[in-house]
Q: What sequence folds into this?
């Protein structure tokens, strides 16, 4: 299916390139027109003037935006150009209620909708090795698979509409705990005077290793946190997790602790750094060493 791509941020641009390599990308749209024009020129595809034009020239649309409001605005923009049997796939991380509303809205038009958030970071988007967790109708998922498989290595239907977002929320809770643990461990190792590069090399093969340790502990060792998964975006995701848990009467201590720490980072001006910037706070758990006389 010829596919349009909406949302050319840190991950979206790489995902669009992967669809282009597979011969599936018809064109792109981005809120900042300059980004869309630049990528379209690079890939020799269309830069559509508006969302309805993109929808009217494609059989499928992939969306990757930042928040619920953005997604609702994009779908509203697409709607005049949508036609029956089209598929809209949303790779954003948003609320479960939002995607269920959109599923019902598009079903009334005969358009299939999948919530299919992704995990794997900018690296996974670049190498088409994302984990993609989908919610929606099985028949729509089966038709969409040839597109999704060009974006990720692990693509699965988790259940009905909203199930993809529920699975992604689970992932974001895990990420919160892991990045906190990695930050504390690296701060401890630094305080013990161990060579941090050797720590990463050796423990990266140990039982306590994780994707975040292997890929983000080097940021901590260098005390430099280039944007991969931004603090403010994970903060937004964890607030979604908090709301979902509250509907079941639950409170998630790891989520609450991480939101609190992200609030401090954002207040200090670090909201657009990678979430490994939590090391800035963890390194302060140890009192400063007295200066040598």
A:
């Amino acid at each position: 299916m010829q596919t349009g791509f909406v949302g050319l941020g840190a991950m979206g641009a790489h995902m669009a390139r992967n669809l282009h390599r597979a011969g599936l990308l018809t064109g792109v749209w981005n809120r900042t027109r300059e980004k869309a024009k630049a990528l379209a020129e690079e890939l020799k595809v269309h830069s559509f003037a508006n969302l309805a034009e993109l929808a009217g020239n494609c059989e499928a649309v992939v969306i990757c935006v930042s928040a619920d409001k953005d997604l609702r605005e994009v779908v509203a923009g697409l709607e005049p150009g949508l036609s029956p049997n089209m598929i809209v796939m949303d790779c954003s991380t948003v609320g479960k209620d939002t995607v269920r509303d959109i599923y019902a809205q598009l079903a009334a038009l005969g358009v299939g909708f999948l919530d299919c958030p992704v995990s794997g970071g900018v690296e996974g988007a670049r190498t088409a090795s994302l984990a993609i967790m989908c919610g929606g109708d099985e028949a729509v998922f089966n038709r969409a698979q040839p597109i999704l498989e060009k974006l990720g290595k692990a693509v699965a239907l988790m259940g009905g509409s909203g199930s993809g977002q529920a699975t992604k929320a689970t992932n974001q809770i895990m990420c919160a705990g892991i990045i906190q643990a990695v930050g504390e461990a690296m701060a401890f190792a630094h305080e013990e005077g161990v060579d941090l590069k050797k720590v990463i090399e050796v423990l990266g093969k140990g039982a306590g290793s994780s994707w975040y340790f292997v890929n983000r502990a080097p940021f901590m060792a260098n005390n430099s946190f280039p944007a991969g998964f931004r603090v403010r975006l994970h903060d937004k995701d964890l607030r979604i997790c908090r709301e979902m848990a509250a509907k079941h009467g639950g409170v998630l201590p790891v989520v609450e602790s991480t939101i609190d720490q992200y609030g401090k980072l954002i207040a200090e001006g670090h909201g657009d750094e990678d979430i490994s910037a939590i090391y800035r706070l963890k390194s302060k758990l140890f009192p400063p060493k007295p200066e040598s006389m």
